[in-house]
Amino acid sequence: MKIVIGRSLTALGIVTALVLSFSSTAAEAQEVGFEIAEVEVFPDTAPKTPDYDVSSAGLNIRDEARKTWFRMVVEYETMPEWIDELTFDYYVLMRPPEMEGRQESPQPVVFHKKIDYVYIYQGDEHFSEVFMHPNSLRRFYDGDILEWAVLVSYKGREIAGESSRQGQGRWWEQFSVREGVLRNRLETPFAFINIEQYEEIKPAAR
């Protein structure tokens, strides 16, 4: 398994006595027939806004204006013929850059995104992704501190998980979590690229 590791949280003086034991979920994952194969995280997987072949009177598409998005990709395998629903909870910690005129150092921020996938057919090339808009990335990422975790649940039971601080505790629980910044694939311009390679996202309840 490939895991991209962020800078150590100990550099921020963050410690915890809680142990995040993903091994405790191993039996659950085996029972369900699920395994995380690989996790890749920005900047290794940083894509630029896609360039669609479209045009409109009075509008120009400028390639040089395309910006870089944050992207985190989880590749996973499923063994049963069908799994009707899986939930992925993403946690991404970033430290905002220093701002001119402010003396205090910015505090790290944890972003959360929950994504429900439905009707997953058996196979070894399933992908889940989470994104952050280029402007949000510029606002919240100082280019240094980046940590992440992903938890996978089936019928309300946590069956798998990976973290850049594996075995270091549920560190994200020490922060106030911010919603609405991370995006699923359908909430980005990448929604129509290789669409059949990705599972169906369950619409949010209204």
Walk me through the structure.
- By secondary structure, this protein is mainly beta.
- The protein has a single domain, classed as Coagulation Factor XIII, Chain A, domain 1 (Distorted Sandwich), CATH 2.70.50.
- It has two helices and eight strands; from the N terminus they run αβββαβββββ.
- A hairpin with a 2-residue loop joins β4 and β5 (157-163).
- The longest helix is centred in the N-terminal third of the chain and has 7 residues, at 26-32.
- The protein is globular.
- The chain starts with 25 loop residues before the first helix and ends in a 5-residue tail after the last strand.
- The model is unreliable at 1-21 (pLDDT under 50).
Low-pLDDT stretches are 1-21
Gross geometry = globular
- Number-wise, the strands total 8
What CATH architecture do you see?
Distorted Sandwich
| Rg over C-alpha atoms, rounded to the nearest angstrom | 18 Å
On the 0-100 scale, what is the average pLDDT? 83
Query: What about the largest sheet?
Result: 8 strands, mixed
